[in-house]
Amino acid sequence: MRAIAHCVNTSRRLLCRILPHPIEQKLLPLSVSVSVLRRARTGPLPSQLRSYVRTPPPNRRPNGQTSASATTKFTDNERGFDPRYTTQADINRSGRDRPPRDHEITDPQIMVIDDGAIEGPLSTSFVLTRIEDHESLRMIKPYVPADPAEDRPECQYAVCKIVNKIDEYERRRELREQKKTSAGKPKTKELELTWSIGAHDLGFKMKQMSGFLTRGCKVEVLVAKKKGGRQADRKEAEAVVARLREEVEENGAREAKPATGSPGGTMRFYLEGKTGR
Predict the structure, then answer these.
(1) What does the mean pLDDT of the chain come to?
(2) Which of 79, 225, 193 is nearest to 143 (CA)?
(3) Which letter does DSSP use for residue 86 in this model?
(4) Which one is predicted more confidently, 26 or 152?
(5) Which GO biological process annotations does it have (predicted)?
(6) Pairing mode, if any, of strands 267-272 and 218-224?
(7) Which CATH architecture best describes the domain 186-272?
(8) Is the full-model pTM beyond 0.85?
(9) What are the structural domain ranges in the chain?
């Protein structure tokens, strides 16, 4: 009997700890009493991981619709489907240079790519409640309506991807750095001429080379024998070399490395324009 009495007293004390006193119920607002009671019964809510499969999106009508006739107004239009769905034509008319993202997406349902896996169709509003602050929902493929004439009996929901904005920022920063690095590197130009080149043509080639060097470009000049034509003698070949090096010096450029070959044969010059102008 003592054990039974002790058990009853224990249960009574436990209920008193869980349930508010009648006087407290009168003093406290109803919302506070209910919230206290719920916390006492259930305890703190555990942190919830994002899961689309275990927690299916609620099947609700859009806000303000309370009847089936209200729902039909979205499908009974000239397009033949809910106008909230975004097609490629809608994107083109929007004036944006990209598809919609985050709360710009008006499609009621979408397919979602998260960490490479695709799920759906899911409620767009439901998905937006599951993404973190550092994430963004990006549409990568718009909605395609059903068209039996095109052998497409069912619609294709828009495909959206959850993007990590921090990772995206880092990728863009790296691309900008790569562009800066490549822009800073001098571009290499190539010129070809023969030892027996005429004075007028040589002047044109030297002017062209000077233009490259003044812009800070690297220039490779190949001088070779003329095929099937008059061959220049040693003196003419050395004159071409002298003119070329004189032009390099006048433009403040330099030979990046020693030339290969010899006058009269095949000779290649490696020139580098003055940078920092």
Answers:
(1) 78
(2) 79
(3) P
(4) 152
(5) mitochondrial translational initiation; ribosome disassembly
(6) antiparallel
(7) 2-Layer Sandwich (3.30)
(8) no
(9) 74-170, 186-272
pLDDT at residue 175 above 80? yes
Angle at 76 between CA 73 and CA 77, to 5 degrees: 105
Sheet order of strands, 135-141 included: 117-123, 109-114, 159-164, 135-141
Which are the contacts of 75, defined by CB distance < 8 A and separation ≥ 6?
A: 81, 82
Q: Judge whether 96 and 86 are in contact, CB under 8 Å.
A: no
- Tokens (6 digits) for 211: 């233009």
In the structure encoding, which two tokens stand for residue 1, read together? 């009997």
The residues near 202 (Cβ < 8 Å, ≥ 6 apart) are: 193, 240, 243
- Pull the structure tokens for residue 67: 């009847």
| Cα torsion through 153, 158, 162, 95, rounded to 10 | 160
The Cα–Cα gap between 20 and 22 comes to: 6
Determine if the peptide bond prior to 83 is cis (ω within 30°).
Answer: no
